[in-house]
Amino acid sequence: MEPEFPISTYITLQKELNTERASLEKEKADWNLVRATLSEAEAEELDNRFCTDIEYLIRTIYNPTAPPLLEYRNSLRALVKQGASARLMSTHELDGYNLAMFIKDIYRINGEEELDLAADIVRTTIIADADMEHQKAYVGNGGITSIEQVCAYLAIGVNWEFAKLTIEQYGFCYRIFPWLAQRQDPLISEHGEYNEPYHLFRRMLRSSPDVEDLQEKTLLRIMSLGWTPFSITDEWLSARAFAQVALANYRLLTMLIPYEREELQPYLDIARERINPVIVKYLLNAFTSDKKIRKHVRTFFSHRPHWLLKKILSETPETIFDLVRRNEQDLLIPFLKHYKQDIIALRNKDDQTLLQYAVKCRSTVENTIQLLRQTGIAEQR
Fold first, then answer.
1. In terms of C-beta density within 10 A (0-12 exposed, 13-18 middle, 19 or more buried), how is residue 154 classed?
2. What DSSP line would sit under 90-132, residue for residue?
3. Residue 161 in contact with residue 167, Cβ under 8 Å?
4. What is the pTM of this model?
5. Kindly report the CA angle at 122 between 116 and 128, in degrees rounded to 5?
6. DSSP string of 250-319?
7. Please, are residues 202 and 229 in contact by the beta-carbon 8 Å criterion?
């Protein structure tokens, strides 16, 4: 049976994202109506009070004797209901306290009730038109935005190094993701620029069994936003970019290259366009990064023809010869099974068939040669 892409989960998550975004936009529209009725002086006073409350949030985070989070949540809600905006909040990572800093500090807030209050504060601040693109928290070498911080936390999972998020704190990050997330910017996709927050999820992904299901759902959410990890320029990808994904959770690796389905067509169109010879090389590094992953990938590709295998054959046929040289039988088998005639017709720059190349290649083992012979590839010209 073909390995199933979790399509029903994907569709459900896509609908949930759309619903959450629509609800948030409705609340922002209602806020705008109230905001429009304020005089300049009224708006200035309310904005200053809102900013002061946000600034004082840091006391609650770091000082157990400070006013409770509930008090600030209620105050911020009341101010926004009157039309207060978040326009005066600091954006610089070394100046004042802002929403990105609050989210970064979430590992200091414990208990479901407190985390619910924290989520309310995030949502209220977003409704009040906080500058989410420019508000940053300090991370040691430049700043990090709210969505970048959330992606990083969702990637590393729970109980990891400095943050050591609890499952409840991780749930907070998963909960607020839809309020911060945006669809893939076509310009970013077109030019392959690095200012794309979802790459942090791919780059920082770690194995975290306690929240593995939510990590998978996060990837599905990101895919539904029109993002692929193949959109980035080659210079920002390491040779082990996808091997790290595979080692964290090999299911995620093949989820990035799903079989064709109508519901996934927007994602697949981008993926096909962006996968170039460098990406192919890095994917193969991931496919062969250990024995368990090799078997998973072989099983994944063995069920029926796959668009990525066809793309490799059509655009980078030299890759197949390299697989022979490396004796990557687990990867060769799906090619031989589904694209036998293409493989038989394949020639390298020296006009050698795969079998001719294998026989003359010093590194090729007998089992690989026998595998090619069974396919019917010519050994002699």
1. buried
2. --STTSS--HHHHHHGGGG--SHHHHHHHHHHHHHHHHTT--T
3. no
4. 0.91
5. 135
6. HHHHHHTSPPP-GGGHHHHHHHHHH--HHHHHHHHHHHTSSHHHHHHHHHHHHSS--HHHHHHHHH-THH
7. yes
* Nearest one of 37, 30, 133, 124 to 85, comparing CA atoms: 124
Q: Please report the pLDDT score of residue 191 as a whole number.
A: 47
Task: Give residue 235's pLDDT.
Answer: 55
Task: State pLDDT tens for residues 228-263.
Answer: 888 666 556 777 889 989 999 999 999 999 999 999
- The DSSP secondary-structure symbol of 211 reads G
Which of 154, 81, 73 lies closest to 116 in space, CA to CA?
A: 73
Kindly give the interhelix angle for 146-156 and 212-224, rounded to the nearest 10 degrees. 140
CA 128/CA 151 separation, integer angstroms: 22
Asked if residue 192 has pLDDT above 60, the reply is no
CA distances (Å), origin 199, targets 145, 206, 232, 233, 264 = 13, 14, 8, 11, 20
> Residue 6: which of 180, 256, 236, 186 has the closest Cα?
256
* DSSP secondary structure letters along 9-56: HHHHHHHHHHHHHHHHHHHHHHHHHHHTT--HHHHHHHHHHHHHHHHH
Question: Which residues, at least 6 apart from 263, have a Cβ–Cβ distance to it below 8 Å?
Answer: 7, 10, 11
Q: Given the structure tokens 């590992």, which residue do they identify?
A: 107
Amino acid at 181: A
Give dist(CA 214, CA 220) in Å, integer: 10
